[in-house]
Automatic annotation (TrEMBL):
Provenance organism: Sneathiella marina
Homology family: Belongs to the enoyl-CoA hydratase/isomerase family.
NCBIfam families for the chain: PRK08139.1
Protein task: May play a role in fatty acid biosynthesis and insulin sensitivity.
Name listed for the protein in its UniProt record: Enoyl-CoA hydratase domain-containing protein 3, mitochondrial
Molecular function terms, GO-annotated: enoyl-CoA hydratase activity
Pfam families noted in UniProt: ECH_1
Amino acid sequence: MSERIKEEMLDEDAVVLTISNKIATIQLNNPAARNALSTGVMASIQEILDRLHDSKDAHVVILEAVGPVFCSGHNLKEIVGIDREAAMLALFEQCSNMMQSIVNLPKPVIAKVNGMATAAGTQLVASCDLAFASSTSKFATPGVNLGLFCSTPMVALSRNVSPKHAMEMLLGGEFADAEQAARIGLINHAVAEEDLDRTVQDFATRIASKSPLTVRTGKAAFYNQLTMPLDDAYAYTSRVMSENMQTLDAQEGINAFLEKRDPKWRGE
């Protein structure tokens, strides 16, 4: 399955969706514009996420980009042309909704970064469930250098790394290389550029082979329990596990393990 989401402001192929073997790939495909998040690009990504939400064709999503810049963040030329506060607020709300849609998507989203990610581009990486980057990739929240603090990127960043590491990036406005990004938890692993495709594809294939119901349940529970007090988190996850245990997939998985065979998932 392959389809293209048109982007009016830039190029008709600015965002491309492909689905194969239960793996959906969202590709930012406008390197000339540094894969910036214009309102049109964000609308295209949002449309794709909405389509994938209940799709049975995809169990896992890869987010990648063409060119040396994974994503440069918001389109600054578009931003400086907005002269009304209400319109500016609408733009940032659109971006915030898109980022939350990634977190709330009932399928894991893997960022595959091969290049620079800045400002809302770093926010995009931090919003994904997993992130792998080539060793030459770099990450920054440089808004402070322009007099515009990266406040909305800060939300996703501060939920990935420790407060002091987040503040170092936000206040310093300098690039963190892939090794540092992995060390502070912004990405999972930094790998050689020639190994990036295989690394991400292998992990995505592994996820796609699991019960989609179990993965969906687990992702939602993970984010829900993060902000709960310890006792509430245990009470909540105990209920989740109890309900999960009643599903056909859990029963199939346990039986398959005991019978030393591969499980046959039904998604129920």
